[in-house]
Automatic annotation (TrEMBL):
Top-rank lineage group of the source organism: Eukaryota
InterPro entries: Haem_peroxidase_animal, Haem_peroxidase_sf, Haem_peroxidase_sf_animal
Keyword Heme among UniProt keywords: yes
GO cellular component, one term: extracellular region
Keyword entries, A-Z: Heme, Iron, Metal-binding, Oxidoreductase, Peroxidase, Secreted, Signal
One of the GO biological process terms: response to oxidative stress
Subcellular location: Secreted
A Pfam family this chain is assigned to: An_peroxidase
Signal peptide as annotated in the record: 1-22
Protein name, as recorded: Peroxidase
Length: 776
C-alpha cells in the first residue's frame, strides 16, 4: 500500500512539473505579431550559423545577445525517454481513476460529445507519438531554457528548430508513413488525400495536422491552453462568456434558408474532423466531471481534461446544481516537418520559413482529409470506403425502408440505431442525416446511369467515375452557390472565388493544402448561429405541417425514415429561414446540446467552442482583425467599426482587455460585411481557406492540371448542377423546388417543377458514355 501511494505521489509531482495537470509557473503571455507580414518581417532571413552551441551569443534581431543552451542528440533522446516514461506511467493514474468509478457514461450528453469527436484507432496511435513529443518539448523548455532566462515564446521557437530525425520518434513522422512512390498519372484521387501533391505525398492527407495562420498562444509556449489575458489576469470562464453574451431570441434571416447552415456543416465536416483524446492505457473515453455535474476530486482529474467551470449563479445550470461541463483536449499529431515544439522546423537556422500563402504552424490533428473531396460520404481511409461499398455496379450499400433507400445501419450508439457513412457525425441530428442521404443516393443514381450508358464498365470503374462526378458536383455547388451567399457576390467575384467557364490553371504544388486551425476551430463554427431550435416539416405546398425540436433528436437520425419526414425535412430546409447571423444562439445549442430529450439538460456549444479555441492556442480576435486588414483595437470602443455598441458593452463586462476576446466570439459578434452573411474577419479567414483549398487540389474538378481532366463537354455538364437539382433527383417525392435553395422562394427564385430542366438544369451523363467519345 505504501509503495502504491509513493508511486502515485511521484507520478503526481512529475505530471505537475510537466504541465499535465494544468498547473505551471506563471509566465507572461506571449504577445503575437499583429500580422503575417509583420511576422515575416521580424523572422525572415536571420542567420544562425553556429547553432547549436553551449551558451553562445547570436545576433538575430530581437534575439540579439541572447544565450541559448546546447541541446544535442543525447539531450533530445533523454527528453523523449522521460516523456515516454510519463506516458507509460499514466496507466497507474488511469487505473486509479477507473477504480474510483469515474467513467464516461454512454447516452449522456458527454458520451455523445465523445461520439461526435471520436478518435479512430489509427488517429489514437498517431496521437500518442505527438503527446510524447509535446511532453519532451515541455521538458526541454523547463530543463534547458529556464536557466538561461529565456521567455517561453523565445524558447519555444528555439526548440522548434530541433528535428526529430534520428530520435526514437523518427519513424512516427508523417513523411515516413507515405514512403510509397506516388503514381502522378493516377486518374482518381486517393481516399485519405495522400499523393494529391506528388512532391509532398502526405500534404493534405487524413490524420495530419491542421496548419495555422498566426503563431499560437499557449500558456507555457508549448501546449498548455491559453488562460491568461493581456493584463495578466485569468481569462473569463467559457461558460461565463456564453451566458454574458448570448441571449436566445427568435430573429430569423429574412432571405436565407436553413440550407445555408446545413451545407456549411456538411462542408466543414468534409474538410475537418478534430478527434478528442482518450485513455492512454485502455482507449476508453475520459470523464472530466462527476455524473451529477459537479467537479471531480483533483486526484481523479485526468491530465487530458480541461473541464469548463459553471458559475454558481448560472441561469440554466445553476438551479440544477451543475458546476462542471465535460471538455477533453483535442488529439495532437506530429507536424509534417517533424520537429519539437509548437512550430515548424526552421531548416537548420533559427527562424521560421513561410510564405504569404502557407500557414505557419500545426499541432492538432485533422482526422479527415484536408481536401474538399466528399470524404464525409466516402470516408477518409481505404478501409472505411470499402466498408461502405456494395461492390456491384459501382454502388454504395443501402438499407431499404418503405421502398426508399437510406444509409446502411451501423452501430448501436444511437437510440434506434446509427447510420454508417463516411463521417460518423452524420448521426448528430436529422437534417444532417438527410443531407448525407441525398448525396448517398446521388452517387447510386449516377452509378446506375453510367452502367446503362457503359455496360462494359467494371464495378470499380463505375464506382470511381460516379465518385469523381459527385465530388465535382459538391465542389461546384460550394464555389458557385454557397460561397457567394456566405461572402457576398461582389467580394467572391473580386477575390477570384467565382468559378469560370474555362479550365482553372491556378494549381500551386508549393502551397500547403492543410486546413487552418482557425477556420476549423472558429470561423466555420458560425454555423451554430444559424441553427433553429424548432425545425419545420414542410409539405408539398410549402405549408408547415408541424415541427420537430432539435434537442429532442440529437443522435436519433432514423426519424427521417418515418412517414413523410424525409421530404418534409428536405423541403423545410429549403423553406425555413435560418436564424440571424449573430451571437444570440438558440437554447437547443447553448444548454441542450446532445441532450436526451428536450426536457433535459445538455452541453453548451459556445462554451465548448471557446474552450476548444483556447485548447488549440488560438490568439484572440483582435490579432485576426489586424491580419485581415482591420485596425487593431486599443480599447473596446475601437470595435465599433463592425461590432454593435450593445455587444461592446457586454464584451467590456466579461473581458479585461480587447486582446482577450476569443476569436469565435469576436467573429460571430461582427455585423455582416456588404452583401454577405459574415463579418470581415470570418469572411477573410474563410476566403483564405477556400482559395487555398482550390489552388492546392491537383484533382479539383475544373483544374487543367489533373492527370486526366474532364472533357470540355463533361465540364460544361458539371457546371449545370445546382443543389436544387440534387434535392429534386434524390428526394422521395419532391416535385417542386426553387432554383436556388440557399434563398427562400421569392420573386426571381419562385418554385419550379422538378421537370422544368431549363429552370433547374441537370447534368447530362451522356457526356460520359463511351460511344459518345466521337462527339467529344
Amino acid at each position: 500500500m505504501a509503495g502504491s501511494v509513493a508511486t502515485l505521489a511521484i507520478l503526481w509531482v512529475s505530471l505537475q512539473t510537466m504541465g499535465f495537470l494544468g498547473t505551471s509557473h506563471t509566465i507572461g503571455a506571449y504577445k503575437l505579431p499583429m500580422s503575417l507580414q509583420n511576422y515575416l518581417a521580424s523572422y525572415t532571413g536571420l542567420p544562425m550559423s553556429n547553432y547549436p552551441y553551449e551558451g553562445g551569443v547570436v545576433d538575430t534581431g530581437r534575439f540579439h545577445n541572447r544565450r541559448y543552451p546546447h541541446i544535442d542528440e543525447a539531450v533530445l533522446n533523454n527528453s523523449i525517454s522521460f516523456a515516454q516514461s510519463l506516458v507509460d506511467r499514466m496507466s497507474t493514474l488511469e487505473r486509479n481513476i477507473a477504480n474510483a468509478g469515474v467513467e464516461l457514461m454512454a447516452h449522456t450528453p458527454a458520451g455523445k460529445q465523445f461520439l461526435d469527436s471520436y478518435p479512430s484507432e489509427d488517429a489514437f496511435e498517431r496521437g500518442l507519438d505527438a503527446i510524447v513529443a509535446m511532453k519532451a518539448s515541455s521538458y526541454l523548455l523547463h530543463q534547458s531554457c529556464r536557466r538561461f532566462g529565456l521567455e517561453k515564446d523565445d524558447c519555444a521557437r528555439y526548440i522548434s528548430t530541433l528535428s526529430l530525425q534520428g530520435t526514437p520518434l523518427d519513424s512516427a513522422c508523417p513523411g515516413s508513413r507515405h514512403a510509397a512512390i506516388c503514381n502522378p498519372m493516377a486518374k482518381y484521387r486517393s481516399f485519405d488525400g495522400s499523393c494529391n501533391n506528388v512532391e509532398n505525398p502526405s500534404w493534405g492527407s487524413a490524420m495530419t495536422a491542421y496548419t495555422r495562420i498566426l503563431f499560437p498562444q499557449y500558456f507555457d509556449g508549448i501546449q498548455e491552453p491559453r488562460r491568461i489575458g493581456q493584463t495578466k489576469k485569468p481569462l473569463p470562464g467559457a461558460r461565463s462568456v456564453s451566458v454574458a453574451l448570448s441571449t436566445p431570441n427568435d430573429q430569423s434571416d429574412v432571405s436565407r434558408t436553413l440550407t445555408v447552415m446545413q451545407w456549411a456543416q456538411f462542408i466543414a465536416n468534409d474538410i475537418s474532423y478534430t478527434p478528442m483524446r482518450k485513455m492512454v492505457s485502455s482507449g476508453k473515453p475520459i470523464s472530466c466531471c462527476r455524473s451529477d455535474g459537479n467537479p471531480l476530486s483533483p486526484r481523479y482529474v485526468h491530465p487530458d481534461c480541461s473541464p469548463i467551470t459553471v458559475p454558481d449563479r448560472d441561469p440554466v445550470y445553476g438551479q440544477h446544481y451543475v458546476r462542471c461541463m465535460n471538455y477533453v483536449r483535442s488529439l495532437p499529431v506530429l507536424r509534417s516537418e517533424c520537429t519539437f515544439g509548437p512550430a515548424e522546423q526552421a531548416s537548420g537556422t533559427f527562424f521560421l520559413i513561410i510564405d504569404s500563402n502557407r500557414a505557419i504552424l500545426d499541432e492538432q490533428m485533422n482526422q479527415a482529409s484536408h481536401f474538399l473531396d466528399g470524404s464525409a460520404i466516402y470516408g477518409s481511409t481505404l478501409k472505411k470506403s470499402r466498408e461502405l461499398r456494395e461492390f456491384d455496379g459501382g454502388r454504395l450499400r443501402v438499407h431499404k425502408d418503405n421502398k426508399h433507400e437510406f444509409l446502411p445501419i451501423g452501430g448501436t450508439e444511437c437510440k434506434d440505431g446509427c447510420y454508417d457513412s463516411g463521417d460518423y457525425r452524420v448521426n448528430t441530428h436529422p437534417q444532417l442525416a438527410v443531407m448525407h442521404t441525398i448525396w448517398h443516393r446521388e452517387h447510386n443514381r449516377i452509378a446506375n446511369k453510367l452502367a446503362e450508358l457503359n455496360p462494359n464498365w467494371s464495378d470499380e470503374t463505375l464506382y470511381q467515375e460516379a465518385r469523381r462526378i459527385v465530388i465535382a458536383e459538391i465542389q461546384h455547388i460550394t464555389y458557385k452557390e454557397w460561397l457567394p451567399i456566405l461572402l457576398g457576390k461582389k467580394y467572391a467575384r473580386a477575390v477570384g472565388l467565382v468559378v469560370e467557364s474555362s479550365y482553372n490553371r491556378n494549381y500551386n504544388s508549393e502551397d500547403d493544402p492543410a486546413v487552418s486551425n482557425e477556420v476549423a476551430t472558429a470561423a466555420l463554427r458560425f454555423v451554430i448561429s444559424l441553427m433553429q431550435g424548432k425545425i419545420s416539416l414542410t409539405d408539398n405546398k410549402r405549408q408547415n405541417n408541424k415541427t420537430v425540436t432539435l434537442a429532442e433528436y440529437f443522435f436519433k437520425p432514423t426519424i427521417i425514415e418515418s412517414d413523410e419526414v424525409f421530404d418534409d425535412l428536405l423541403r423545410g430546409m429549403a423553406t425555413q429561414s435560418s436564424q440571424k447571423m449573430d451571437i444570440n444562439i438558440v437554447e437547443d445549442i447553448t444548454s441542450k446540446l446532445f441532450a436526451s430529450n428536450e426536457e433535459s439538460l445538455g452541453l453548451d456549444a459556445i462554451s465548448l467552442d471557446i474552450q476548444r479555441g483556447r485548447d488549440h492556442g488560438l490568439p484572440g480576435y483582435n490579432h485576426y482583425r489586424k491580419y485581415c486588414g482591420l485596425p487593431s483595437a486599443k480599447s473596446f470602443d475601437d470595435f465599433l467599426d463592425y461590432i454593435p455598441m450593445e455587444m461592446i458593452k457586454k464584451l467590456r463586462t466579461v473581458y479585461a482587455h480587447p486582446d482577450d476576446v476569443d476569436l469565435i466570439i469576436g467573429g460571430m459578434a461582427e455585423r455582416p460585411a456588404e452583401d454577405g452573411l459574415l463579418g470581415p474577419t470570418f469572411r477573410c479567414l474563410i476566403f483564405e481557406q477556400f482559395s487555398r483549398t482550390r489552388r492546392t487540389d491537383r484533382f479539383f474538378y475544373d483544374s487543367a492540371y489533373q492527370p486526366h481532366p474532364f472533357t470540355p463537354k463533361q465540364l460544361a455538364e458539371i457546371r449545370n448542377v445546382t443543389l436544387a437539382r440534387v434535392f429534386c433527383a434524390n428526394g422521395n417525392h419532391i416535385t417542386e423546388m426553387q432554383p436556388n435553395v440557399f434563398l427562400r422562394p421569392q420573386l426571381g427564385n419562385e418554385l419550379r417543377s422538378c421537370t422544368m430542366f431549363e429552370a433547374i438544369p441537370s447534368v447530362d451523363l451522356f457526356a460520359w458514355a463511351e460511344r459518345a467519345k466521337a462527339y467529344r
